[in-house]
Amino acid sequence: MDKELKKIHEHYRDNYFNEEIADQIKDKVHQELKNADAISPIKMRNYSIAKRISYSAAAFILLFGLFLGSAFISPAMAEVASKIPFLNMIFDQKPINQVISEELEERGYEVDGVGYSVRKKTFHATVIGSEEYYNEVNGEIEKIIKEIVSSRGYDDFKVTLEKERIDPIMIENDANNLIREQVNKIVMEELVPKLIEQGYKIQTNYLIVDGSPAANSDVITIDLTIADTETRKAEIEKAMIEEVKKQGIQEEVKVKFHTIDVQAKETEMQWSTEVLPVIFEGMLNKKEYKTKGVGYSFKKGTMNIHITTKVEKSDKEAAALGKKIENAIQDFLQSEDLKDIVGDTPYKIVVRDKHDKEEIN
Amino acid sequence: MNGGTYLGNQEIHINQETESSYVDKETLIEQLMEHYTERVYLLAYSFVKDRGIAEDISQEVFLKVYKYIDSFRGEAALKSWIYRITVNTSMDFLKKKSLKQLLFENSFLESFHRTESAETSYLESDRNEQLLEVILTLPMKYRTVIVLHYFYDLKINELSTVLDVRSNTVKTRLSRGREMLRRKIEAKKGDIFSG
User: Fold this and answer.
1) A127 in Cβ contact with A110 (< 8 Å)
2) Which of A122, A335, B3, B20 is geometrically suited to a Cys-Cys bond with A308, CB 3.0 to 4.6 A?
3) Are both B18 and B97 inside the same structural domain?
4) Residue B67 confidence (pLDDT)
């Protein structure tokens, strides 16, 4: 029967799915995401660490540009600049999206959600208001953003503008969702703070109630992140269930524990919010580094930094480019600025060819 | 493809304890859509059997993935997590709408294109279509395990994660579903070849 089922599966794929459907789905998702900051019920501003990272990383470029600009004016500054690794210069600067937002606001434009997409190397902004208003101002806004970004030394970016969408697809709050929300509220706002005060090692930084309620049942699952040294799961679960019941929730509630190595998690968080965005942004936005993609993996305490370039391994320049990227990152990671963060965390820099297969450094 | 370990093979896996990856969220969702749109859509379709609704559900699934990816802790493979969201979103939809209406009033199994012209291919295609119909008309709990197990190659423990039921329950459903399917297919074969 297995063979038969394989054939049926093929038939299912061939006849019930096509590129048109794929494009429809992707287009809708893109549209929703672009406008999410403005009006979607999915409030990404509150959730998106990654967005914050890419925003602040984009910002580093801003001051980098400013600094280089000033280097042309003052020989003393030029000397200083030449000694500072370029990634250090884009470390810890004011977000460029903030600069753009402030500038646009100052000039009286109605704009929401200025952002930066690493993948597309694109700055994007959402214009609030009528179609008429959008048509009137979009050219001016685009020009201003381009001017600000160019003046910072970017040599590889685009700017796109969208009009605010007024028909967001709402994820309906049915009765089940409302109860789940109520449970989440009780847990997050009342119970967890109490338990932490009593010494239980619950990790609120990572506590997010499962976004996907259990299928095929009305059981409400509370996902709880605890330190791997916390052994009193039964006590925590009992307290949770009792409290939820006490507050009049009839549905069955169960607690699902997730344990983390707190120290390792903190290290990873610090790298992924303070160190990696600088590296990624620096590499992605300077043509000379020919960088196509970036990523990292944190495995067994070692931070692996991945850079995917646009070159073939067989290209003459590949080895030199690989070394150049590695050296730039090394200089940054070993600098005084990073001493406290990097500490003695082992790391590895992996630079790969355009197929993301062969290492070139 | 971008660096990191999000994509590149079937077994996408993120685990915060042992391994995690970072690309910006937009890149990630792009990669996930590239990889999973077909599977998410066809899984949703197996529930609702309506192209427009399955598209809406797929969209909602990817938006939920985007929203919650920061909290994805990697206890399960990413694919199990995504299928779980797909199953739950589809179930939520069916709970909201009238299941009967969806199952019986809609014209069943819309086909997009029949490209085969040779008679044998047509017959083969027609037969597969009828057998697919058998699968998609199995009771929901059996249909889901059959689709996920045979079409998507999920193992028992993965099915247990996706459906949030015990492994034994999965085994029972799989065995009953298989039996039900076998009987229906045998009956259908008779119909197909005699008619």
Assistant:
1) yes
2) B3
3) yes
4) 79
Nearest CA in chain B to A177: B92
Q: Note down the domain range covering A209.
A: 175-260
pLDDT tens digit sequence for A56-99: 332 332 223 233 323 333 344 444 445 567 777 767 666 677 77
Beta-bridge partners for A256: A223
pLDDT at A49 over 50: no
Tell me: the pLDDT tens digits for A306-319?
A: 888 999 999 999 99
Instruction: Give B21's strand partners.
Output: A297
Q: Which of B56, B76, B110 is the endpoint of a domain?
A: B110
Mutate to test the interface with A, among B87, B97, B164 (most CBs of A within 10 A): B164
Looking up residue B91, the CATH number of its domain turns out to be 1.10.1740.10
Q: Which domain holds residue B191?
A: 112-195
Q: Give the largest CA-CA distance in chain B.
A: 58
Distance CA(A64)–CA(A154), nearest Å, equals 10
- Interface residue of A1, A2, A5, A123 to substitute, partner B, most B CBs within 10 Å: A5
A141 located within any domain: yes
- Are the Cβ atoms of B88 and A215 closer than 8 angstroms? yes
Q: Considering only CB atoms, which chain B residues are within 8 Å of A356?
A: 1-3, 8
86-115 in A: which are within 8 Å (CB) of B? none
Q: Which of A289, A288, A306 is nearest to A349 (CA)?
A: A306
Amino acid at A1: M
Q: What local confidence, expressed as pLDDT, does residue B6 receive?
A: 29
CB contacts < 8 A, A to B, total: 223
pLDDT of residue A131: 85
As a whole-number percent, the residues of chain A with pLDDT over 90 amount to 18
Do residues A297 and A306 make contact, with C-beta atoms less than 8 angstroms apart? yes
Question: What CATH number corresponds to the domain at position B182?
Answer: 1.10.10.10
Examine residue A318 and state whether it is found in any structural domain, yes or no.
Answer: yes
Residue appearing with tokens 């000397």: A79
Structure confidence by residue, pLDDT tens digits, B32-88: 888 899 999 999 999 888 888 899 899 989 988 887 776 665 555 778 888 888 998
Are residue B25 and residue B64 in the same domain, yes or no?
Answer: yes
Contact assignment for B71 to A53 by CB distance below 8 Å: no
Q: Residues A304, A338: one domain?
A: yes
Asked if the structure places residue A361 within a domain, the reply is: no
Residues of B (28-67) whose Cβ lies below 8 Å from A: 28-30, 33, 37-38, 41-42, 45, 51, 55-56, 58-60, 62-64, 66-67
